[in-house]
Structure formats: C-alpha cells, structure tokens
Fold these 3 entries.
Entry 1:
Amino acid sequence: QVQLVESGGGLVQPGGSLRLSCAVSGRTVSTLAMAWFRQPPGKEREFVAAMKRVGGTSYAADVVKGRFTISRDNGKNTAYLRMSNLDPEDTANYYCAAGTGSPITSSLGLRSTYDYWGQGTQVIVSS
C-alpha cells in the first residue's frame, strides 16, 4: 500500500517561496506518476503540477507555470513542489497524489488518474 505524507506548508509573505515535500512509502517514487493538486478555500480541488514516472517529464498548470516546479529525489523517495513568487491567490491546501499507471499527458491533470492521495498541507500567502 502506497502512503503519501506532505510537509512544508505554512505562512509566507507575497513574493516569497516555499518547498513542499511528499514522502512516499510502500513503493519507489520513480515507479509512480506524481502530482500536486490544491484546493483554495471554498473552491474545487485543482491541478497544479505533475511528473510522469517514465522519463520524469514534468508539467504545470498555466496559472503556476514558471513559478512552481515539481521534482523528485529517488534516493529520498520523495517528491517536491518548489513554489516561488507566491501570491495570495496561491493560498490553499496542497495535496500530493500518486498513480501507478502511465497516463497520457492530457490526463495528468485529472484527479481520477491518481490512485493515492496524501492528507494535505496548508499554504497561506499573506502579509
């Protein structure tokens, strides 16, 4: 059974940076498609970024492209979301997700693509 545990959230000022971590257990992170989603207060959960398990190609939603980067460390069996130039609109609970398949690019942003989810970590961007 795959388990995901997020960490690294917190309060940050606008323009600041944070790195979220997703510790993976039960399976090697390089054998999983990994993704980050977020759920702003009162809104639906939305796709942020994903990385394919084969080749490690990464993708990001247009709203965060150029500011957020997904990565993984196979040695630490952990995925990361590096966030920079944060805006109050980035305030949300951030969730790590993992999938055991090999999704096509167009399905990386779908919640149904992923088999496992973490409990989330809260990010608040405020001065």
Entry 2:
Amino acid sequence: QLQLVESGGGLVQPGGSLRLSCAASGFTLDYYAIGWFRQAPGKEREGVSCISSSDGATTYADSVKGRFTISRDNAKNMVYLQMNSLKPEDTAVYYCAAGAEEQLFRLCVLWSLDEYDYWGQGTQVTVSS
C-alpha cells in the first residue's frame, strides 16, 4: 500500500518549536518532490514548503520564511519540517504530499494541489498559551 504518514504534531506555546516528519511506505521518495501544506478551520489548504528530489532546492511560503526549514533523508525515505518561533496563526492540520519531480514548478511554486499524487492523513499543530 502506497502511503504517506505524518507525525510530530502537538500543542506548543508561542515561540516554541516542533519537528514534523513525513514517512513514505510502499514507494521510494527518491523521484518525488515533497510539499508540506496546512489547513486551518474554515480556510483553504495552503502550501507551506516544498523540496525537490534532484537537487534539494526548497521553497517557502512568505509567512514561514526564516522560521521553518524543510529537509529530506532519502536513505530513510523521510521528509521533515522543522518549525521554529511558532505563532498562533500557524495552528492548522499539516499535510505532506508527494508529486512527480517533472512537475516541480507546479508543485513547489504554484502549489497546485491536483498535481500531487500522494497525500498523508495530516497531523494537528496547535500553537497556544
């Protein structure tokens, strides 16, 4: 079964940190660009960060630049999202998704949800005092 599974979410105080993990099973991430998305209640799903498979190039939403860092470990078939200086407005369900590297521009710049082939079930991140 081909699937992505996120973990690492939880409750954290403003200014705190969390590291989300995205694990793939049933397929290798080597040839996929990986995006992190989030969806807050009543809002549309939005792109947060993305990383290519070929050269590790990354993109970030303006709202998280300088605070979040995406990385991947192809040997472990894992992708991570390190989130620092968290704010209440970062509260959302976070999803990882995999899409074909050939669609890198649509995946990581246009954040085209339909171009992603696999999605995880999401992990809740709540930033609150």
Entry 3:
Amino acid sequence: VQLVESGGGLVQPGGSLRLSCAASGFTFSNSGMSWYRQAPGKEREWVATISSPGGTTNYRDSVKGRFTISRDNAKNTVYLQMNSLEPEDTAVYYCVAPRFNSWGQGTQVTVSS
C-alpha cells in the first residue's frame, strides 16, 4: 500500500487549498479513505472520511461547511478541498487507508498572513 499526498503550502486566512492523495497497491474503489492532521504540539486528529462504495462523507465539526472530501476511483485518488482556511487549520495533513492502517508521508498546510 502506498499513499502519496500533494497540494500543501502556505495560504492566507480565508484562502483555499486542494490536497490530493494518490493511492496504489490495493483495490482503491473498495476502500474507504480518510484525512487526518497534526498541528504543532498537538495530537493527531481525524478530519474527514469518505466511504466506498457509496461515497458517504463525514467531517469533524470544526471543518464542516469548509472542507470537502471526494474521490476519483478512475484515478485512485482522494482529495480534500479546503476553503475559508483559518490559522487553526495549520497542520501536517495525512492521507489514510484505514482498512490497511496505512498512512502517507504527510503534506504541510500553513495558514498565515
């Protein structure tokens, strides 16, 4: 199982970023996928999950209405669209395949003016 995140960076408060996670080594279309994050000095926390099949999504309360998780099974890729970013969203974001307890290397998101 391999998960490779991309799309992180520095953005001003109120801005947007889209994270991508390219998956390989397993049947992606049959697997739920999640995003987690870890802010400096804090514990890692769950952000969002998308199921498969069906594409049911769930979010932590603090990102509801701002973040959208989606997937493209033809590309074996899961996305996290992040809008109205806040400084509190600053963290390393990880793509996770929970079924295999597999984590990507993470991508840094920094929200700062």
